[in-house]
Design goal:
Blueprint (H helix, E strand, L loop, with lengths): L10 E9 L6 H10 L5 E3 L10 E3 L10 H5 L1 H4 L4 H17 L11 E6 L5 H14 L8 H5 L3 H10 L5 E4 L5 H14 L5 E8 L4 H10 L28 E8 L1 H6 L6 E10 L12 H14 L8 E3 L6 H15 L4 E3 L2 H4 L6 H15 L1 E2 L22 E2 L4 E8 L3 E9 L1
Parallel strand pairs: 4-5, 4-6, 9-10, 9-13
Antiparallel strand pairs: 1-7, 1-8, 2-3, 6-7, 8-14, 11-12, 13-14
Helix pairs in contact: 4-7, 8-14, 11-12
């Protein structure tokens, strides 16, 4: 790699936690992503009658996520589902990192969890209940459970973390932005450990119906498992999903002092806004380019140093074309690009966190996963997209890119340990 700048900061990634439609933990999710098979996709009852009535779900038939067993029924009832997923993923990440909350200085532990919609389902249910039975029947818990910070607050309550805490809202760039923000907190000396990631579980009929009308969701109801086709010539839109991904980040000195195993490093972060449209990325990709170049500068690297990109790759017509053109313009033909959304679904505010965790695993195992469902690559997208099977290669540095409604862009640079 090229020479690093005078003041690089490599946040150590010491633990990973995931719960996705591809698997209820990190090893299972990673195996399925490498296999190139779609995660669990099913019809969602509350979406019945919509042209986009299916989504990726963690529950696979009778193999359902037993939240009561994992969290305890009384604790689970104090959380909306997206917060439950965040806590479950955090517990796995802490176990993976070998950290026990009884042994840390809780005032030096930060929590940053991103989400696009928060507890919108509980808000919708409260609205229905009030309309049907009056305001006296609505639960007083609708307010705290529907807030975007509810996942971050729940992680703090579960772990006892008392450092800086926030819910990150940057639409579908929320998870990536949360990890970048957590690194900034570590770099500023405001914490020693940061629990960072994203969580989402949202099947709001209003929101999904609106997205159908906007033409951003796939309508392949006849074969939902293969409906999500990132960078494909025959793509027709994204397929939403639920899930959570959480990374344990540590200040490098803290990780070194406790002899932690380091999986990879978060070495650079960049963010921007297109200031162009509420819903459509800038057609020239200028905001994404700005974020990616800022992340490279922050890491002290140049485009030629990047070996792999885990792209946003939503399978929408415009996003894939704009992102592909921008990646090619900035990084050229060298890095192998993949989108893992056909394995996990587009988990909205959680997607960047889940995909950053997958990028860490790529660096750990020196393997680029395939882009599931990519049968016919779009010939107008010039980037080298990994398809069909995983590819073993030497990976020193990787990029993770995310775009979100409202013009939000975020990029991370990760380096091998």
């Amino acid at each position: 790699m090229s020479g690093r700048g005078p003041d690089p900061f490599d946040a150590a990634v010491t633990g990973l936690g995931m719960v996705t439609a591809a698997g209820k933990d990190v090893p299972t999710t990673w195996r399925r992503v490498l296999d190139g098979t779609p995660g669990t996709v099913g019809q969602i009852p509350q979406l019945a009658g919509l042209p986009c009535d299916f989504a990726y779900t963690i529950d696979d038939g009778e193999d359902r996520l037993d939240v009561d067993a994992l969290l305890g029924r009384s604790l689970a009832r104090t959380m909306e589902r997206f917060a439950q997923l965040a806590v479950i993923a955090t517990r796995e990440a802490l176990n993976d990192a070998g950290l026990d909350s009884a042994d840390w200085d809780a005032t030096r532990v930060a929590v940053v969890i991103g989400s696009s919609h928060g507890g919108l389902d509980v808000y919708d249910e409260g609205t229905r209940m009030m309309a049907a039975k009056g305001d006296r029947r609505i639960s007083p818990m609708v307010t705290p459970l529907s807030l975007l910070n509810h996942a971050a607050a729940s992680v703090c309550l579960d772990t006892g973390a008392r450092g800086p805490s926030m819910g990150m809202a940057a639409a579908c760039a929320s998870g990536t932005s949360a990890i970048g923000t957590a690194r900034l907190l570590l770099r500023a000396g405001l914490c020693d450990i940061a629990l960072a990631g994203g969580a989402e579980s949202m099947h709001s009929r209003t929101v999904i119906g609106s997205a159908c009308r906007a033409g951003v969701l796939s309508t392949r109801r006849h074969d939902p498992a293969t409906a999500c086709r990132p960078f494909g010539a025959d793509r027709d839109g994204m397929v939403t999903g639920e899930g959570a991904g959480v990374l344990v980040l540590e200040h490098p000195e803290h990780a070194r002092a406790r002899g932690a195993r380091v999986l990879a490093h978060v070495s650079g972060y960049g963010a921007s806004n297109d200031a162009h449209s509420p819903a459509v990325p800038h057609p020239d990709g200028t905001g994404l380019e700005q974020a990616l170049r800022a992340a490279l500068d922050d890491a002290g690297l140049v485009p030629a140093d990047i070996d792999h990109v885990n792209a946003h790759g939503t399978a929408t017509i415009a996003n894939d074309a704009i992102e592909g053109a921008t990646l090619h313009r900035v990084l050229g033909d060298r890095p192998l690009v993949t989108s893992t959304k056909a394995a996990t679904g587009h988990t909205l505010g959680a997607s960047g966190a889940i995909e950053t965790a997958l990028t860490v695993l790529s660096l750990r195992d020196q393997t680029v996963p395939p882009t599931t469902n990519l049968d016919i690559p779009d010939p107008t997208i010039e980037i080298p997209i990994q398809s069909e099977r995983p590819h073993s290669t030497t990976l020193h540095a990787a990029a993770k890119t995310s775009l979100g409604f409202g013009g939000h862009n975020a990029a991370l640079i990760l380096t091998a340990s």
